[in-house]
Amino acid sequence: MARKPFTPEEVRRIVERHKEPAVFRNMTDDWPASGWTAQHLSVCLEQKPVRFRIGKRKADKTPLFETQCEYVEATLGEFLAWTSHQAGLSVGPFSDYPLSDYWAYADYKYIAKLFQHKESMFEEVVWSDFGYPGRDGAASTLWVGTEGANTPCHLDTYGFNLVFQVEGRKRWHLFSPDDTSCLYPTRIPYEESSIFSQVNVLQPDLDRFPAFSRARAHVVTLQPGQVLFVPRHWWHYVESLDPITVSINSWIELEEDDEARVGEALTRTLVCALKTTPSLGNHDHWLNPTEDGVASHDENMQYLSLAVQACMRKRSEMEEEDSQQEGQDGHRALKRDSTGGIKTNYTKKEERKASSFIPPFGPHLIPVPHVGHGQALKDPTLKDTNLSRDHNPQCAPVSDPQSWTSEEGGHDGCGELRKRQEAEKGGHDGCGELRKRQEAAVLSEGPHKEGIPQASLSTTDLLECLVHPNVITLVSQLLLDRQRELSGS
User: Fold this and answer.
1) Beta partners for 228?
2) Spatial contact of 238 and 171, defined as CB atoms under 8 Å apart
3) How high is the pLDDT of residue 398?
4) Phi, then psi, of 102 in degrees rounded to 5
5) Are 149 and 104 in contact, with CB atoms under 8 Å apart?
6) Alpha-carbon distance 25 to 28, whole Å?
7) What mean pLDDT comes out for the span 243-263?
8) pLDDT bracket for residue 89 (50, 70, 90)
C-alpha cells in the first residue's frame, strides 16, 4: 500500500488549526468508496426508492430554496435511465420532468439509513485517514445529482465538513464568516443546522443586496478523488457540473459547539413559536424539508433547557480541570472569553505557535483561492480554480476582513438603520429590506390613520431581528447566567 502524503495526526492538526478551505489530494486512492459511482450504487440499492429534489433550470436573481422544489421517489436505476436518454427504459416519475428543463438531486442521504441492509459498506469510507478513528460511512451523507443540481448558499451552524468527490465535478463557491453581513442571512426557510443566504450568488440582485458586492468569493472545482475541507461557519453554494455527480460528506462537530447548541435551541423555539401562530400573511412554507417536523412549544422549551444544562455541565467540568491542572503543575488556568468558554489552552509561547500555524501547502494540499468579490461571480467568463493533478494554485492576497459588529460599522441588525441606509443608498439593513416594504405598505394603504403610518410588518420581519446572531448570543448568555444563579454556582 502506497504511503499517504499525510498521517492521520497531521491531517487532524491541519483541519483543526487552519481557518480557510483547502483541498486534499491523493488521500483516498485506496478507499473502496472510490468506486461508488451512481451505477455501482444502483446495483447495491437494487429497487430501493430514493427521494430526489427537482429544480427547474432557469436564470433567476432569487435563490431556489428547498421549500420551493418538487420531490419524487425513484430508484437510482430510473434516475440513470432518465439521465442517459435511452429509449425504452423506464424512468418512472422522472417522465414528468424533461432533463433539458429540470435537474435532480438525491441530497442529505444518510448512508447509515440508506445502506442499513449492507452495513459492510460503511467501512469503505475511511475517514480515520483524516484523524478521526472509527469514523466511516455510517457518519456520512451521500449526494447524487445531475448537472445543474445545487444547494442554496448557506452556512452550517455546527462543526466543519470534509467532502469526498467520487464521480463527476462540483463547483464550490465559499465565503468567509467575516462576510456574513454581505450574505444577508435568514432563518426562513428554517433548518436547525443551517443558516441560508437571501442572495443568489451566481445571479445576485445588487439593487436589493448591494453589500454582496463586497463579499470575497473563494471558488474551486472539486475533482473525483479529492477531499474538500470546509471550515466552521464558512458559507458555501455548490453546483454540479457533470451529467452525474456523486459525493460523500462527513460533518464533524467541535467541542465549542456546546454553546452554539444553546443558541440554536433558542432560535428554534422562537421560530416555531412565531411561525406556527395563525395570522394573515403567515402561510409561507417556512420549514425546510430536511427537518423532521415541528415540535410543540413545550418540547422546544425542554430542548432549550437541556441544551443550557449540558452547556453548564461542560463549563463546570472545564473549570474543574483548569483548577486541577493549575494545582498540579503550577500552570496558569485556561483563558476564557466573556461567555466563560475556553479561549485557548496554550501558554503564551504555544499561543504564538498556534497563531502562526502555516499549513503544508503543496501538491497534496491546495488552498482554495480568493477569486474576487461577489460582483465578479456575475461575469460568465470567470475562471474558477480547477484542481487537476497538474495544477497547484496559490491563494491571492486577501485584505483584512470587515467586521460585522456595530462598533466596526458593519452588520448590527437594526442599529443605526437610517444612517447606513443613507450612506449605502438603500443598502443592507439587517431586517430584510424592512424600510422599503414599510414605505410601499404606507403608499398602498393610503392616508395615515391618526397620524400613525400603516406599515405592514410581517412575522418574518420580526424574526429576522429576533434571531439575529447578536441578539441570540446576548439572550443565550442571559439564560446561562440565570441557570448559574438558580444552581447557586
Assistant:
1) 23, 163
2) yes
3) 35
4) -130, 155
5) yes
6) 8
7) 91
8) confident
Q: Most distant CA pair in the chain: distance in Å?
A: 82
For residue 55, what are the β-bridge partners?
A: 103
Closest CA relative to residue 28, chosen from 192, 154, 198, 163 = 163
Residue 136's pLDDT band (boundaries 50, 70, 90)? very high
Write down the domain spans for the chain.
Answer: 8-254+361-386, 258-355, 406-471
Distances (CA, A) of 53 to 108, 124, 375: 10, 26, 29
Contact between 324 and 330 (Cβ < 8 Å):
no
Q: Is residue 82 a contact partner of residue 100, using CB atoms and an 8 Å limit?
A: no
Specify whether the backbone of 124 is left (phi greater than 0), alpha (psi in -120 to 50) or beta: alpha
Question: Is the distance from CB of 432 to CB of 468 less than 8 angstroms?
Answer: no
Tell me the CATH number of domain 8-254+361-386, given options 2.60.120.650, 2.102.10.10, 3.30.1490.20, 3.40.50.720: 2.60.120.650
Q: Is the pLDDT of residue 258 over 50?
A: yes
Query: Burial level of 82, CB count in 10 A (0-12/13-18/19+)?
Result: buried
This prediction has a pTM of 0.80
* Secondary structure (DSSP) of 17-86: H--S-EEE-SSSTT-GGGG--HHHHHHHHTT--EEEEEEE----SS---GGGSEEEEE-HHHHHHHHHT-
Q: Please report which confidence band the pLDDT of residue 43 belongs to, taking 50, 70 and 90 as the band edges.
A: very high
